[in-house]
Amino acid sequence: MSSKISRRQMLGIGAAAIAGAALSKTHAHAINHGGSGPDYKPFRVYDPRRGGDRPYWEKSYSGGPVDVNPLPPVLPGRGYKPVVVPNGAALPFKIVDGAKVFHLIAEEIDHAFDSGLKAKCWGFNGRVNSTVIEAVEGERVRIYVTNRLTVATSIHWHGFNLPNGMDGVGGLTQPYIKAGETVKYEFTLRQYGTQMFHSHHDEMTQMGMGMIGMFIIHPRNPRPEYQVDRDFSLMISEWAIPAGTSRPNTLEMTDFNILTINGKVFPSTAPLICKTGDKVRIRLGNLGATDHHPMHIHGHHFRVTATDGEEIPLSAQWPESTVLVGVGQTRNIEFISDAPGDWAFHCHMTHHVMNQMGHQFPNMVGVKPDGLDEKLRPLLPAYMTMGNTGMDMGKMAEAMPYPRNTISMKGASGPFGDYISMGGLFTIMKVRDGLKSYDEDPGWYKHPPGTVALKATDEELRRDGVDLSSLTVNVDRKSPPSTKASGHSGH
Ligand SMILES: [Cu+2]
Known about the structure:
Blueprint: H1 7-10, H2 15-27, E1 89-90, E2 94-96, E3 99-112, E4 118-124, E5 131-136, E6 140-147, E7 155-158, E8 182-188, E9 193-199, H3 203-208, E10 212-218, E11 230-239, E12 258-261, E13 272-275, E14 278-286, E15 293-297, E16 302-307, E17 310-311, E18 319-320, E19 322-325, E20 330-337, E21 341-347, H4 372-376, H5 393-399, E22 412-413, E23 419-420, E24 426-432, H6 458-463
Parallel strand pairs: 1-5, 3-6, 5-10, 11-14, 13-24
Antiparallel strand pairs: 2-3, 3-4, 6-8, 7-9, 9-10, 11-12, 14-20, 15-19, 15-21, 16-17, 16-18, 16-20, 21-24, 22-23
Copper (II) ion binds next to loops.
């Protein structure tokens, strides 16, 4: 079966899956999976209120000569609410003999980070960084991995408690998956939480080319607190793609110029759309090469509710607005999206919200470029001194001629006609009252009158004793003649 299984056969949760699920209810404990271990019992009930009941020392439940017998498979929408994968999708599955069967295909993909930048990357099932595997605690999963690359690989299940031979470290726990081969992984999910998967052979190259993904395991017996209205899955990564080239440079150690969420840079990152008052969970994973990312949300505070798939007791959860997601880590954050608006959610490392930055330039802030551009233009026809005003680099970058296949420092046009000078590791959480559908971008937020920061009027300055008359440099003392400070011009 392993060599004959076709991609088409595996696509879609079709009638076979439904039939399989129905069958599995009666045959769940007669599954032939090659093991004769004890029946799986959820070792913990998801309960964020749990505090002192957790033992000091706990087994990881990994390994052993035999695996545990699984519990019946659960279908999306029945036993769990599927996660939302902006710019991505969950991998389809079939149910065969009570096990969930996935087919992961490692392959080269012409990937668009944005409308302006495409590159030949590696990924899974036609997606880069954004193929998610989703399952339920206690299920048996059988994951066929077909290697359509021209080099060997292997897939590691990151954060999993499983038999050692299923751990996926090429050469250590299994032979390589050679080019053209299909290898079968099979194990029982002995835990729940936000986990990941990635190549564990020549990782620097293969993970740098995009062979990473999220693996979400829902709890078998969730308490009401587990149920949220929006459950987002975001994978963070970083790339070195020199301007004008079309392959990631996986030798780069520090100077990454493309920072992505689910394989996309802002403004191509799909917004996180929420209703006012929704309970929201964001699952963050970082499988980039080097950088840890402090992910920051605006207008809200969250609690960090799980680290590396393990939930944190309520009494130990940190209230934060920025959570550091280190390389190889996952973090769950939860909050109520109770404030309508367009709220930035982004990495707080300032260079990580700029696309395609070149870092080999001299510091030009405050430098007068008079004559410099003209002198250099015969040598470099497209030369333009940049960064000397310390602002608007994104807009300037759009006006400049730039090399083929690059997004430069491009950001996005905003609702006020001004430029949003951020790209890269940046997205927008759009919270709306009376939202009709999560599937449609509701557009820019329409602020209630009087709630937008606008240029101060003379009357306001006078009232509050803000005296501009003594300032001599770079101050526009004229306020607009007829601004009524009543919201912006609309969109
Ligand atoms: Cu960052």
